[in-house]
Design a protein that fits this description.
This protein is an alpha+beta fold.
Length: 479
């Protein structure tokens, strides 16, 4: 997207929108009150579209202006840039502007290239497993299949911007019907399962269910919950079970339309939608958004107000994308102390890499040294986008004295422009704070002289000089 004062060049996007609508330039011009020749000039990027005409365009055709403005393509640009920097492609010095030009011209071609690149990676992995006598072919293929299933479901949620209006609407209706805003959720959901479905809820000792938190026993008409679950976890698991019993056709309809690649992906998406519904049931959209704004998105306070965990509240915040009532577009990540990412969502432009860990300069790693304490940070990505982020450690349900307690970190953030709306920034002088310059990960980061660099950047020629030693052992040619 190119900006000229208050005017924007959106030629290729406007052309795609018009063709999707199945109308001519003359018809679009008539709808917008301009000439067909002017539409032709805009589509050829020979004329910018004014801000007023862009608003009219969004109103007439009822769509989100960010789709035309280009915000929705930011993730595609990042993924394309990530792929093009793979040394195997020998694409030369490719910059962000180059990737943006490709996506702006035709995002479908960019997606097709990424599919081809993904297939290339999978084929390379298979060839490696054949050539390497230490590799286990069967394990590699299972890993490939698992990764493909998980990635396809993540893409499914990304396409929907982690927002499913029909699920939110149905969950809000059920929440109101059950009076969950005033009655105790655990008791109410237990009664629902008993009276409507004839299922009894039991809290069972850990030695009975050592490796499970919830078990649906259809034969004995029981739902067993582990004693290790905290109260917020018990409520959530009961909400999931209600969702699975009463709204299975709704979840299946969404999965069937998704066109996922295999049964594993379909089942993962089905369960993920049930979890989405459970969160929407316990934290219904309108009330939750109202309380978010009233508390300035105080995650801890909201967790008490809704009887949910810190993670459940933070995750729910990423789903507030109703067109007429949007929340702050947050990104969310869950990471263990080794840097493994087990959950990630982004309602905004923040890009997570599919390969490798997160940047060590991001303070989500440091919060393990201060368990339970919320840490704040302003971070700047290589494309000059700046974000305000918070991070805090959490732990899974504790077990017996001699059992290991799993700790992980939750990261939540948004564009710096939204920071004044957050409780976590109210006592900070945002303008005076210097952002921490981080990258997606070391392989994709081209920042020079980073003392925390663990790997050389892809597609860069390394320079080694016996006469000097820099703060990083990896020196490389810059454009």
């Amino acid at each position: 997207m190119s900006v000229r004062k208050e005017k924007i060049l959106i030629g290729p996007r406007l052309r795609r929108l018009r063709r999707t609508l199945g109308i001519t330039q003359a018809q679009m011009g008539e709808d917008l009150g301009v000439s067909a020749s002017y539409i032709n000039l805009i589509e050829g990027n020979q004329r910018p579209i004014s801000a007023n005409l862009l608003v009219t365009l969004a109103q007439v055709y009822d769509f989100d202006m960010t789709d035309v403005g280009g915000a929705g393509d930011a993730r595609l640009v990042s993924e394309l840039l990530e792929a093009l920097r793979d040394p195997i492609l020998d694409a030369g010095p490719v910059g962000k502007n180059d990737a943006e030009d490709i996506v702006n011209a035709n995002p479908d071609i960019a997606r097709a290239f990424l599919r081809l690149y993904t297939n290339h990676r999978e084929l390379t992995m298979r060839l490696y497993s054949d050539a390497n006598p230490l590799a286990d072919r069967e394990k590699v293929e299972v890993l490939e299949q698992s990764d493909r299933s998980v990635d396809s479901v993540r893409e499914f949620f990304h396409v929907h911007r982690n927002y499913f209006p029909e699920l939110d609407e149905e969950a809000e209706k059920l929440s109101s019907e059950l009076f969950l805003s005033t009655d105790e959720p655990h008791t109410t959901l237990t009664d629902r399962l008993k009276k409507k479905h004839n299922y009894q809820v039991r809290i069972v000792p850990t030695h009975v269910m050592p490796n499970q938190l919830r078990y649906f026993d259809r034969h004995h008409r029981r739902i067993d919950l582990s004693e290790l679950l905290r109260q917020s976890g018990r409520r959530f698991q009961l909400a999931v079970q209600v969702a699975l019993l009463e709204y299975a056709p709704l979840f299946r309809a969404h999965v069937d339309r998704a066109g996922l690649p295999d049964r594993s992906a379909e089942e993962l998406a089905y369960l993920s939608l049930a979890n989405y519904f459970a969160a929407a049931l316990l934290m219904p959209y309108s009330r939750f958004l109202k309380e978010c704004e009233a508390t300035k998105y105080d995650v801890e306070l909201l967790s008490h107000r809704f009887g949910a965990s810190f993670e459940q509240v933070a995750h729910r915040m990423t789903t507030l994308q109703r067109p007429d009532a949007r929340g702050i577009p947050f990104f969310f990540v869950r990471m263990d102390s080794a840097g493994n990412v087990s959950k990630r969502f982004s309602a905004g432009r923040f890009h997570f890499s599919k390969f490798g860990g997160a940047c060590p300069l991001w303070n989500i790693h440091d919060c393990f040294a201060t368990p339970g304490q919320v840490r704040t940070q302003i971070i700047e990505m290589p494309d000059n986008t700046t974000y305000f982020s918070i991070a805090r450690t959490m732990s899974r349900a504790e077990g017996a004295y001699d059992q290991h307690q799993t700790k992980y970190a939750i990261g939540l953030g948004c564009d710096i422009a939204y920071a004044p709306r957050l409780i976590y920034a109210q006592n900070l002088n945002l303008e005076a704070m210097v952002p921490e310059k981080i990258g997606v990960n070391c392989y994709l980061c081209e920042r020079e002289n980073c003392p925390s660099r663990a790997h050389a950047p892809l597609n860069k020629k390394l320079i080694f000089d016996t006469r000097s030693r820099g703060v990083s052992v990896f020196r490389f040619e810059t454009d």
